[in-house]
Amino acid sequence: MKNKTTQTLSKLTSKQNIYFTRRGNTSIKTALKLAKLQNKTKVIIQDQGGWITYNQFPDQLKLELIKIKTDEGQSILYELKKIIDKNSIILWNSAPGYICFENNMKDLYDIAKKSDAILINDISGSIGEECSKYGDILLGSFGRWKPLWLDQGGFIASNENLEIEEHIFEEEFYDKLNTALDNLEKRKNFLFSISNNIKKELQNNSILKENILKPEQIGYNVIVKFNNDEIKQNIIKYCDKNNFEYTECPRYIRVLYDAISIEVKRLKE
Fold first, then answer.
1. Which domain holds residue 82?
2. Residue 161 sits in the same domain as residue 121
């Protein structure tokens, strides 16, 4: 079963080598350690839309941390070009805030290669999308609320033979992961459909329609900004009425605005 799982992930990521880890955070820290071994000294991350440990692991590994300005988590290429050099690691979530997908991932990779930098692409939320295929090292989580939701495990993918001590799972884990991989497109389409319906409904709301972030883009979550309590309570009322879980922003892993993030990605079919 592990061989089948590895083959499927290799095809999805366009990378030859797949390594399993205990969890997504293990994948992130391992990837940073591998990059540091190549004499990289600084980590460039999104100013919003990333993951919690992007802010923690560089300091633990004695790497300089640099946040660059983004368009609600999506890259602004000239901001990257201003600071990238051969000492750089780009650690990027290609599904920023789970509200969209990175639309410049190939360009990010090209910039990294020209600068002799390393691109680490976190594809936990973007797996199966075109943007999930670009990077020197790809990594992901199979944790709670992910497109591949197993409540445990992670992976690293690369065309290089990496010195990684793989985590050994029971055969049942690979069985469940194979099932999740077989159902990945079905799950994604289920979540995209709900997300799109939410956007359509909110666009019919005279109070909320102008406050939806990236309404024209495909994504899992729907984030709605507010600048007063009336708008905030309208969003919360909508969520409660439809039994949608939500979180309040600003949060680094979503956006840095006052906003409500409707957590569509937490739903199960």
1. 2-182
2. yes
